[in-house]
Amino acid sequence: MSKRTDSNGYTILFAIGMVVVVGALLAFTAASLKGKISTNVELEKQQNILYAMGVNENNETSAIFVSTKDAPELFGKYITKQIVLESNGDITEDDKAYLIDIKKEKAKGAERRLPLFVGEKDGKTFYIVPIRGKGLWDAVWAYIAMDENMVIQGAYFDHKAETAGLGANIKERFFMDDFIGEHLLDSKGNFKGVAITKSNADPLNKDKKDNEVDAIAGATITGNGVADMLRNDLKLYKPYFDKLKNK
Amino acid sequence: MGLLSRKDAKLISDPLADNNPITIQVLGICSALAITAELKASIVMAVSVLFVMGVGNVVISLIRNIIPSKIRIIVQLTVVAALVIIVDQVLKAFAYELSKTLSVFVGLIITNCIIMGRFEAFALGNGLWRSFLDGIGNALGYGVILIIVGFFRELLGAGTLLGYKVLGDPIEKTGVYAFGYENNGFMLLAPMALIVVGIIIWVQRSRNKALIEDE
């Protein structure tokens, strides 16, 4: 190391220079890629919603979305209505409801707006809702498709940073598919949610009315987080489904 | 003589065996523990580190003569962090699916002690080409161990490899499960990563006695 680079003046100048150069570089990258990234995020939301209602390209074992190229067209074809349940009880239609940021809505507490997408496929009507909760390390979220009796027709789970091989398995087919057919209401019609339990003596998940699915070993806290998310967030939609029935 | 002189070739081959960053220098244990529960994550992490190490070592080597020694660690940290963020952003824009898999590792790459260790120990004092080779060599040595650990943990813990059920179906009792074999769920938990790394260290040192330190 030469003496020149040891002086305080040089050190400070170098630090300032480095911050300016690196800062400019990062800002430039972020700004020039921003448009593309947000398009990707929007397309992913469409893919997720379509996945939940069964519009996907799943093979035998893996979860595969429709391609990003086809997503906007299929979204327009299958999703017939996008509505928002306002906090004051009003229901408004909004064809950009799928872009509502659930994280921001959750932070609003009682003022929260609830988006809901109505999909039509093979003569069947799906009600798809986005929900969000906490896993072990960070956020978990999901798109749940239900019929008018709040029976789950399809589910897509995702997470930000659950442990690979354990909690991260919530986005695997073997877990997500377990939810298909599960009732969210108990036999009396009250909202109960779906618990994720160990030793429920039903590992093949044949009993769809027990409000339980089999847990992933080693992912207890992620599983509890998913169950809490289902219970807390889906409950908010119960009044809508009650109204739907009384129509 | 091929592309590499013997001395240069040693830069690549050494970290793969007798100077492995994980088993000999015991660096980068944190990420080896965190992400080796499945093979796929191990491979992704190995490739990401390979890239960051190669480029990072070159950048540090390029500016090695102008870095003030008092703040060199901060400079190194800034270089890694900037590199990793740029890669993450580019992936998010052009390979969104892949970036979702990778995003978990971004933070882990920045804190990976192998990267900082090689910047500090090698790139600060060596030329471009040699630094690049050193980076690649160490990243490969790291990646090999990661993949070995990932292979055994996923195979014995979940009965799968890269998500494929190579041992049969544990619930429907096909394949080896028909004979009463059970997955060892303990393999998926973090302590087993250390135990597997320990076994690798044991095997390596019993094959090469020169690696055993004197009392």
TrEMBL record, chain A:
Its cofactor is FMN. SMART domains: FMN_bind (SM00900). The modification FMN phosphoryl threonine is found at residue 220. It catalyses: a ubiquinone + n Na(+)(in) + NADH + H(+) = a ubiquinol + n Na(+)(out) + NAD(+). The keyword Protein biosynthesis does not apply. Its EC number is 7.2.1.1. NQR complex catalyzes the reduction of ubiquinone-1 to ubiquinol by two successive reactions, coupled with the transport of Na(+) ions from the cytoplasm to the periplasm. NqrA to NqrE are probably involved in the second step, the conversion of ubisemiquinone to ubiquinol. NCBIfam families: nqrC, PRK05346.2-4. This is Na(+)-translocating NADH-quinone reductase subunit C. It comes from Mesonia hippocampi.
Automatic annotation (TrEMBL), chain B:
It is an enzyme of class 7 (translocase). It is found in: Cell membrane; Endomembrane system. InterPro entries: NqrD (IPR011292), NqrDE/RnfAE (IPR003667). Its EC number is 7.2.1.1. One of its GO terms (cellular component) is plasma membrane. HAMAP family: NqrD (MF_00428). NQR complex catalyzes the reduction of ubiquinone-1 to ubiquinol by two successive reactions, coupled with the transport of Na(+) ions from the cytoplasm to the periplasm. NqrA to NqrE are probably involved in the second step, the conversion of ubisemiquinone to ubiquinol. NCBIfam families: nqrD, PRK09292.1. Composed of six subunits; NqrA, NqrB, NqrC, NqrD, NqrE and NqrF. This is Na(+)-translocating NADH-quinone reductase subunit D. The lineage of its organism: Bacteria, Pseudomonadati, Bacteroidota, Flavobacteriia, Flavobacteriales. The gene is nqrD.
